[in-house]
UniProtKB/TrEMBL annotation:
UniProt record, GO biological process: putrescine biosynthetic process
Protein name: Unannotated protein
GO MF assignments: agmatine deiminase activity; protein-arginine deiminase activity
Annotated organism of origin: freshwater metagenome
SUPFAM superfamilies xrefs: Pentein (SSF55909)
PANTHER family attached to this UniProt entry: AGMATINE DEIMINASE-RELATED
Signal peptide: none
Keywords from the UniProt entry: Hydrolase
InterPro entries registered for this protein in UniProt: Peptidyl-Arg-deiminase_porph
C-alpha cells in the first residue's frame, strides 16, 4: 500500500489511515513509503510507484527522477519476485493529466 514517509506532506494522514484500516481488517500490508511528485504549470501532481502496469513477465513502474526511484523499484521487485520490475519515466505531462501507466492502460486477458 502507498504510505508517505514525509509527515509534512498532505497525503501523509490519508495514507496512514488507509494502512490502519487494512491492518485492522487483518490484512498483511507491504508499504511503499515514498510518494514522489512533479510540478508542471504550477500544478503539483503525485507520481505513485503503485500506479504500475503488470504485463507478461514484467511490471512497468512510473518514475519521475526522484532520489528514491531505484530504491522503490528494488522494493517492488522484492514484493513481485516473479517479474522484472522496470521503471519508465512518465514525464510531467502524463502526471499532470491525472493518470499513470496503470490508469491509461487496459489489460487484455489471454483466452
Amino acid at each position: 500500500m502507498q504510505s508517505c514517509d514525509d509527515k509534512n506532506e498532505p497525503d501523509f494522514v490519508r495514507c496512514a489511515a488507509n494502512i490502519a484500516v487494512a491492518r485492522g481488517a487483518g490484512l498483511t500490508v507491504h508499504e511503499i513509503p515514498v510518494l514522489p511528485f512533479v510540478v508542471t504549470d504550477g500544478v503539483r501532481a503525485v507520481v505513485p510507484y503503485l500506479n504500475f502496469y503488470i504485463c507478461n513477465d514484467a511490471v512497468i513502474v512510473p518514475v519521475c527522477g526522484h532520489d528514491a526511484d531505484n530504491e522503490m523499484l528494488a522494493l517492488l521487485g522484492e514484493y513481485i519476485p516473479d517479474r522484472d520490475v522496470v521503471g519508465l519515466e512518465i514525464g510531467a505531462i502524463l502526471a499532470h493529466g491525472g493518470g499513470g501507466i496503470h490508469c491509461i492502460t487496459q489489460q487484455v486477458p489471454a483466452i
